[in-house]
UniProtKB/TrEMBL annotation:
Coiled coil: none annotated. The lineage of its organism: Bacteria, Pseudomonadati, Pseudomonadota, Alphaproteobacteria, Rhodospirillales. Signal peptide: none annotated. This is PLP-dependent aminotransferase family protein. It comes from Pelagibius litoralis. The keyword Isomerase does not apply. It comes from the Bacteria. One of its GO terms (molecular function) is transaminase activity. Residues 25-93 form the HTH gntR-type domain. InterPro entries: Aminotransferase_I/II_large, HTH_trans_reg/aminotransferase, PyrdxlP-dep_Trfase, PyrdxlP-dep_Trfase_major, Tscrpt_reg_HTH_GntR, WH-like_DNA-bd_sf, WH_DNA-bd_sf. PROSITE patterns: HTH_GNTR (PS50949). Transmembrane segments: none annotated. Keywords: Aminotransferase, DNA-binding, Pyridoxal phosphate, Transcription, Transcription regulation, Transferase. In the C-terminal section; belongs to the class-I pyridoxal-phosphate-dependent aminotransferase family.
Amino acid sequence: MATNSPGSGRRTPLLALALDRDSSLTLQQQLCDQLRQVILTGRLAPGARLASSRALAAELGCSRNTVVTAFDQLLSEGYLEGHAGSGTFVCRVLPEELLGAMPVSVEAPLPPGSNKPPRLATRGRSIAGSHWHDRRHGDGRAFVPGMPDTAEFPFDIWGRLHARVWRRPAASLLRLGHPAGYQPLREAIADYVNTYRGLHCRWQQVIVTTGAQAAINLVTQMLLEPGDPVWIEEPGYVGLRGPLVAAGAELVPVPLDDEGMSVSRGRNLAPQARAVVVTPSHHYPLGTTLSLARRLELLEWARQADAWILEDDYDSEYRYAGRPLASLQGLAADRGEAGRVLYVGTFSKVLFPSIRLGYLVAPEPLVAPLTSGQAALGALPSALVQPVLAAFIEEGYFATHVRRMRRLYALRQAALVAAADKHLGDILTVAPDHAGLHLMAWLKPEVAKRLGDKAAARVAGEAGISVTPLADYFFGKPARQGLLLGYAAVPEDEINRQAARLGEALRRRLP
């Protein structure tokens, strides 16, 4: 490669550039790649002047236009810079230097106290101490509770809908949408809950969220004052405690019996509670259904106490026997008290956990402030998924998927009951449930005394099986000892094999 004449700037070193006319790459791209490489390796130093395009073209035996085009590309990428009347030079600051932060010396000693644990607020310690992240994120092992079978999801249909929406997206989808969510999805959700869950709502009352916990967080942040008492189920879903603690609520665990949450006990513990969070259709984790008498009693208490009812309907789609009671929201609407109930639903249990979409059905007077609150808190759901999900529901794929999975999960639940009876009958008592994605496995009294559910869960983990101890769902001292066994994501033959493995592991550790 020719060098520039003396006195006209730094001399360009001789470079071994060669163009291969049999290559699949164009001559321009080959020259571009080679020049970029010699710049990055330092053979062309920052500030070095390149030979003229005419001279370089003559040396390489290519057209001058090829060299000019290669120079233009490297100019646009920031590797070269041109000076009018002076020529083309290597940039003194290369693009790679702008992408990385300046390295900091690691030789300096750490300041005193830098290895101390971070100082968290009281609420922060309470939230972080739950370690709920560890429980929720299954790694594919049996028997993670609450985990749907994602392998059975119709991703081919979902992919076609996604391509249809986003191949040529409407301009409205590329702008910030309404903070309450994509209108066609809100309409589809309203049609669904009114038809299948007995709600009475208009689509304008639906607020799309990033999940059930996000919906609870939005409600508690907007409706509760720090220190407000809130009834929670005892035992109950641990994931709901974080939003309540973050809002500064005083958690009041209310025990359950065969009819669900005991309203009379709640009245005794905190008669003027500001709200209650309840799973009336299928209690998590025990599976109890809140009786009609208790529902009416709860609505009456809420009216007297001027309290809110947060109804978490997390898995109503998966019911295998009998017809479910209508939602609390629908019952309240029939009695003219719909303004007290906020209904929360999620798609994570039905579709796949990472979809991170749920919804809140709010009383009409709360829609505007809750929508403003969601915008202010910055917890807006992704606009990428909402139009796809709307089409998935509107075109009937959602209902078809639910029906198919309901049949599949019913078979898997029966397989787990049979496998538990065969391999775990001397350790656990497992009975079928009318709904849900997991079964309660009660430790036999003698096993509970000798091992306990937390120790049993640790033994299972050592054997490569993921079960959750019931003790984790109690706010206070556990009243019973049991394990949650999720079956939805485990094939039937695997259920039998893993149940046998669990039985062997537990028997080895029984004293």
